[in-house]
Amino acid sequence: MSGDDSTRAAIMDATFRALAKHGYADLTVQAIADEFEKSKSLIHYHYDSKADLMVAFLSHLLDEFIDEVEGGGPDDPRERLHRMAEIVVVGLGDDAATRDFHTALLGMRAQAPFEPDLQDQLVENDRLIRGVIADIVREGVESGEFREVDPERYAALFRSAIEGAQSHDVILGDAAPTDEAFAGIERYLIGDLLMASEDRPASSRSSDGADDGGA
Known about the structure:
transcription regulation, repressor, mainly alpha, Tetracycline Repressor, domain 2
C-alpha cells in the first residue's frame, strides 16, 4: 500500500468512528480530524469538502462490504446470501457500535434527496450490491442449488428486505422485530429459494450440514 493509500485508509477509519459517534447531521471535518492521528490539513489535501469525503466513504464502505460477503467464509451461494443478510440486519461485532453506525447511515440516507452527490453514490452502491446478489443467485441456479428465479427481481426483493430490517432496527430500537425479520429472511428468502435436497446434484447434497432440515 502506498503512502497516499495508507493515509486515505486511515481517513476512512477516522470517518467511520466519527460518524458512529456524532451521526451524520453533526459530523464535521473537525470531528473526523479528532479521530485521525495526523493533521486536519491532510484530510483537506485529499478531499475538497465534507461532501467529497462522504462520497469517498460510501464507496469505501461498498468495497469493504463486498469483500466481507465474497471473502468472509464459504463460497457456497446460500452461505454468501446468509452472510450478506447477517452483516446488514444484525451486524458483526459489538451490538452498540453496530447500532450507532447503522443510525448514522440512516441519517445519511435521509439527506440523500437534498444532496445530489450523496444520492448518486448511494444509487451506485445499490446498483452494485443488487448486481452482487443477482450474480450469487445466478450462480446458484446454474449449479442446481437454487431453483429457477429471476436474479434481478430476487436481488431487488432481497436488498429491500435486508435494508428495511436494518432501518426498523434503528427506528424502533429494542422494540424492533430484528430477530424475527432475520429469521424470516433466512427461512423464506434464502431457505425457500433453495431446491429440495433430493433434487440437487449429489456433490451438493453430500456437503449439506445437519441444520438444513430446519431451513
